[in-house]
Structures are given as structure tokens and as C-alpha cells.
Amino acid sequence: MSTRDELLAEAGDGRYDAVIAAATFIPAETRFRLGGVRIGAGTGNMGSASWGGGSGEGGEAPLMNTPGINSRATAQMAMKALLKVRPDLPVDKLNILVAGGQFDTGKDLRHYPTEKLEGKRLAVIGYGNIGREFARLGQAFGMRVTIHARSRHHKWIEAEGFDYAETMEDAARGADALSVHLGLGPFDAGQQRYANAGLIGDEVLSLLNHGAVLINYDRGELVDVAALERALASGRVSHAAIDADLFKDGSRLSGPMLPYLRLVEAYGQRLELLPHAAADTLPCRRRQAGRRPDLRRHRRASRPQSERIAASGLSRHGSESAARHRRHYISAFGGAGRRSGHGRRPRAVERTHSRILGTRSGSARAGTTGADRFWRRSIRRGREPPLHAFAQAPSFGAVHFRIVLTPTM
Predict the structure, then answer these.
(1) 123 and 215: one domain?
(2) Total-model pTM
(3) Residues 121 and 164 in one domain
(4) Are 328 and 352 in contact (CB under 8 A)?
(5) How many domains are there within the chain?
(6) Contact status, residue 20 vs residue 66, Cβ threshold 8 Å
(7) Is 266 a member of any domain?
């Protein structure tokens, strides 16, 4: 099943308790009383009103996801998109000439000068799992990496050896490449759009170096397509690589990739368009199949105890505490707890921090890095490091939690 009509016919009456979905859009009219699991990080396609749509802010059921598994694959594919056009050596053309015996290195090579990535400026918007992995790849190529993210990530970003930018405009100013790695944010029912839709617009693109490369391998809606068209026309952006969902229902196309298709006729040679395939590798599929889901959102303080989400390893008090906190988050990669909008994170998650500190991984690197020491000090001083610190901290093993749905008997 993939079309709206098929899904409504099958799941519109609530006959199914739960749903597990990858890229298929789940309509608001479908009903799943025990919740939904998104295979991947973003939940924008999980539109069922059972949990309040893609943001998970509402409804009766929990919305879960499986972040982190495909982060490295996505970052590597985003880097591949950059390497395809920078350095700007026309590899395909040279291959044809050489294979046909039509090239003389001594005479012809001077017509194909190129530049290296080392020393170029890379702007990364967002510092989640994918953004951090992509920044590391840019750093490995000798690029000067500037990251814009929430201010609470400032010290962590600098501890990793990157530059921190207070605003997106500061990050984009003078950049030779920009890659955006953000979620869509909450959905505004009044304006019928996500909070971060069109975030990369004229104000950001106009500050890039002339001939810059734009990469959006997260959510297609993040880029203002009209602004991108103007940037392509002026030469401010020389190439754009977009990876976003495209759905086909009969002859009708839909999805966040759709607005980009109108740019193909004029700028097709300067575009690389993918159907949200960057993270869909076979190893990622296998890992996702065996991955325990994370609790994405849970708002229902009044939910009956028999239907609450429980995490093995947490006490009853911890489970109840999680239910009281509107934005509690349990990471299967390390038990990281986001701060609640109503005070401190649950005690159970604080206890998890100390459990992680005492857990060593056999495959971890020996010794500690500056980032490790920052990570430890943050916890000891009662501060909360970035969420990805728990997922990616190199010297500690993962503490896994099993999410259990327990229906009322």
C-alpha cells in the first residue's frame, strides 16, 4: 500500500493497532490507537491524527522513530554530491576522451585546471547526527567548517574543531558549499506549513560565494525553491543536490521533490535530484529491521498505566516521570534525554547518564579526546550535552532500551 486511497480503505476505520512506515505518507484520517514507528529519523510523513501528525504534538498514541542508523550513509552520500562537482574536474568528459584515444596529456591537460577542496569554506546548518557526520567529512578534506546550530551546541561544536556561527547568515557568508541538516519543525495548521519550510532562502543564498554548491539531503521543504531558482540564474549557486520524496499516484505526482522539477528544463545540468534515496542502503535496511524504536513524542499525562510506553531498565517512577514530560526522548543509542519544556529531564534519564559513564565499549578507541572530556564534564556539572553526544561519544558503549507497547486487556 502506498496511495492515500489504499491506506484509507485499509486503515481508516482503526482496525490496525499500530503502523511501521518508511517513506509512505500516512494520512491524517488513518487510525492507530497504539502508535506509529517511522523507519528513519524524520517523522514528517507520519501524518495520522492518532499522534497529532508529523510533529507528534497531539492525539492519543505515541509517535516513534529510529534515528541514527542511516546518519553516516546520508552524510557520505551528501559528500559524494559535493565531490561530484568539487573539485570541478570534468571526469566524465575526460574519461570519454581518454577511452577514445583522443587526449594528449602533454598538450591538452593545461586546458583542464582544477581546484582542491582544502581551504574551501563549508557551511553546515544543523548539528544532529547527519550534520555532525557531514562536518567531519568536510574537515577530513581540509575544508574550513562553520556550523550554525542551537546555542547550547556552541561549546561542543568548538570542542570538535569547528567554527560556530550564531545565525544561518553568518554561516553562509563567504561559503563555497552549504549543506542543510534540519528537521521540518512543528506543523502550523493555520498557515498549512512546517515551521522550517523555506528556511534556506534569498537571505542565506545571497551570502554564498559566487558559484557555490547547495546540498539538501534532509527535507526538501527546507529550501525556498523560488530563491534557489534565482540563485541558479545569477550564478550564485552553480550546482544544487536535492534528495527528497517523490510520490506517484497514477499520473499524479506529489511530495517535496515536486517543486524542484520545474527547474529541470532550465538548469537540469546543474541539478542532481534523488528520490530520498541517500540513506536507503542495504546495511541500513538490515540494521533498521533489528532496531528498537525510540520514543519520539509522548504528551499524554493522563494515559492509563496499562497503555503507557514503558522502557525496560527504567523504574516505575521513571516511566511515570516520562509520561509527565511532554518532550521526553529515549535514545536507543545511549539513553539521551532531551530537556522537558516543563522543567528538568526525568530522574530516570539522569540515572542513565551515570550508567553510560561506567560502560566501556570493547571497540572504543583507547584514551580520551578533548571532546570526551567535555562530554564527561558536562554531565558531572549537571549540564546536558547535545543529544548526539550520547549517540556518538566514541569512548562509551551504547545502553539499549526496549520500548514495549502494552495494550489494555
Answers:
(1) yes
(2) 0.68
(3) yes
(4) no
(5) 3
(6) no
(7) yes
